[in-house]
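Page 42, continued from yesterday. The earlier attempt failed because a stray header line got pasted into the input along with the sequence. Redoing it now with the clean sequence only.
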Amino acid sequence: MLSVENIDLFYGASQALRHVSLEVEKGQVTSLLGRNGVGKTSTLRAVVGQHPVSSGKIMWEGKDITNFSAHQRAREGIAVIPQGREIFPLLTVYENLKTGYAALPRKDRFIPSEIFDLFPVLKDMLGRRGGDLSGGQQQQLAIGRALVMRPKLLVLDEPTEGIQPSIIKDIGNVISLLRDRGDMAILLVEQYFEFARDLADRFAVMDRGEIVLAGAKKDMLESDVRKFLTV
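This time it went through. Structure tokens are written below.
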């Protein structure tokens, strides 16, 4: 569904990405791995339209979206759960969920009951302010907000960061359920290798702004992946 083809990305004079290519398929989790500062988040920013690329092409469902803005890509079914969650702390849980309406036609502006099936804690906290939630609850809210958009591509940037182990397990279960449903492509950026290993169908490993290793999980040696993750 998503094909990133030889993209370069710069911040001023500094080149963050070099000829990065990546494919993400429906019904699969593709995990983008690497140490801090190697270009993982820059790749995500390019995919979701938060930073322009200087060369290369981004295709989505056969359509060239390289020059689409972030809100245009959201309307195409691309949703992102950013690193750090970025919920609105002064809005209630219900109001945070409703911000997902922005990319939807009016007829679809309601919260699917599935979100409360996946995250029952959100239903119990609808009137509570987002800033009063724990880190794990905020992460569940951030994922729920993205799912309100009925995405066809779900992009998660380090969803385990700062989260207690019980919530990490719950989030992993939700990602597995969404993948197994078969109608969504999932791009997961992660540093916690065990979490990515248990979920991913494919790996792409980055180093110094480039993809240095990529392929199906069954075809890759764990030791080859790990050597690009250790400091």
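Notes: The mean pLDDT is 94.
Reminder to self: strip header lines before submitting.
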